[in-house]
Structure prediction request, 434 residues.
Amino acid sequence: MRSPTIARRGAAALALLAASVCSAPAVAEPAPARPVSADGDVPSLSEQELFERWLHASAEVAALRAQIGAARFDVVTAKLLPNPEVQVAGALLAGGTPPDGKSGLQGEVSVPLPVFGQIPARRRAAEARVSVAEVTVLVALWERAGDLQSAMVEAAFADARVTMLSSNLEALARLRGIVEARTRAGAASTYDVLRVRTSETTMRAATRTAMTDRTQSESRLLALMAEPALTRVHVTRAGLAALRGPRDEAALIKLALERRPDLELSRRSVVASHREAERWRKDAVPTPSVFAGAYAVQGPYGLQVTAGVSMPIPLFDRNQGQVGRALSEAHASQLMGQALEVRIKTEVEGAWRAREAARVALEEYREAALPAADEMLRRAEVSYQAGKFSIAELFDAFSTLWDARLQELDLERQMAMAEASLERAAVLVPLGRR
Prediction:
């Protein structure tokens, strides 16, 4: 039995994300479904199609994109000048001799003027925060893509198990026909027929259980998709994508260090914290306020006009705490980046070794075990029909072949999960970083 190369590419989702995370609309039309599966009106979708639907129609992805839009309004706020302040006051003589008049009305307008670089510093800090927000969303979607591709693998191999058990049922039906024909000819006993029918009933129950597992796997996948229009989905091994990227460990490590969103988040956080420190230093510079006012009195009438400039004195509070906090956060992010570089290298190396081990195990098993199991079953059927084998020996051959196919399926699944871990660790498709 020859199976397609198994892999799922969460990195494919990240490639699509690079083009859509900042520009795609919050709500998009879902992608058209592929032809329905053989067991009903369930749409059969490939891995690539599922990722596209997830990125363009998932309510969760739309909510994460909205966070970037919210952060961009901080840049709008940072570019604005402070609002002017208007003050109105009245005076009424309660007793004694008025110094100027029995009543008066005073008005004043004050306008702060941040002319010493405060506005550009605030704008740069806000833009740095938007940059951090973009990568934060990318990290969230990258992590969710890993969950999604793992769910695809589970659903695909749950479907493969149903297919394998259905094939075993067909083999049992063929065997039952052989046994019943020999029984009618008097060459086999009723026990042989009962043995086949009992095994067929047991296999049918196992198939039903596998169908239940497949339904549960597809439900978990649908929950991660979070697309209202998608209520059923069918994933097969053939729909999983092949491994992308170089087949070289050193090249994969290099790509991971260039493209990992969690490492990029750490780098951008360092920049953003330094921009915050710059902003607080600029805000510590005294901001002058220009004011103008008038004072009108009655009894006798008089009018007085005032104007001037006021400026705070940064004698005690010079934003020392905010500057220190920002610099400490920058240092923490820098240390985290160094730790992530070590972790990423270790993750890629481990995933690469696991993938190679799984690949070798699968290839060796296919070359050695499966041909022998097929040949053993063929010989057992010929010997049983010739009266040289008992039903127990024939069933032993069938059981050996079924176990061999199940072992191959498990090895394929292990290979698939190893490749999924490698793709997640190495991020084999560019993320479109700025």
